[in-house]
Amino acid sequence: MSTADALSSTRSNPSIDAVVDRLSDPGVAASLVTLLDNAELLSTLVLGLSGFISRGEQIIEAVAEGVNDLKATGAAARPAGMPSLAELGAVAAQLTATAPVLEHVLASSMVKGETIDVLSLLGDAATEGMAKARTADTRITGLRGAVKLLKDPEIQRGLGVLVEISRALGRRV
Asked: What is the percent of the chain where pLDDT is above 90?
């Protein structure tokens, strides 16, 4: 009996079969690794961008107030290290140039609460898993060990989630 026959006879759950089949695709596996490697960064970026956007009016008002103060006091009274009006104008131009990108991000699903929750969940799970892996020295030694792990309900749920993410990602790429 070949290794593939032995593996297929031990798998009785269609979800596990689907996970194993999808994870055997190098593109899917590489995509999942990239997502998981960057989940915490993606969550941080989305939260930071969301905070920046939600305070956009305050930021614009503060910049406008600063410009008005500079106009009122004049360039000669400008404190050391304070940017000139020309420098502020350049920054304002850069902000204006990025407006379409910010609008695109805001219109996308990246700043939806559900997306942020999922990225946060992935980040928490990755952090917890890395901490546990460092202390528990978890290892999978061979095919039998991998098949044994597939009987764990938590692993089945986690791999099921990865399969569904892979399916959704596959439909979009």
From this structure: 1
H helices, E strands: number in the chain: 8, 0
Give the residue from 20, 27, 46 showing the smallest Cα distance to 119.
Answer: 46
Residue 1 CB partners (closer than 8 Å, separation 6+)? 9
pLDDT in tens, 114-132: 888 888 888 888 888 888 8
Distance of CA 168 to the CA centre of its chain: 16
Q: Using DSSP, state whether 140 is helix, strand or coil.
A: coil
Q: Are 97 and 76 within 8 A, CB to CB?
A: no
Burial environment of residue 36 by CB neighbours within 10 A (0 to 12, 13 to 18, 19 or more): middle
Length of the chain: 173
**Are the CB atoms for 139 and 1 separated by under 8 Å?**
no
Structure tokens at 149: 């792990």
Mean pLDDT, all residues of the chain = 80
CA pseudo-torsion sign 26, 27, 32, 35? positive
What is the signed CA dihedral for 138, 142, 146, 149, rounded to 10 degrees?
-50
Higher pLDDT, 142 or 73: 142
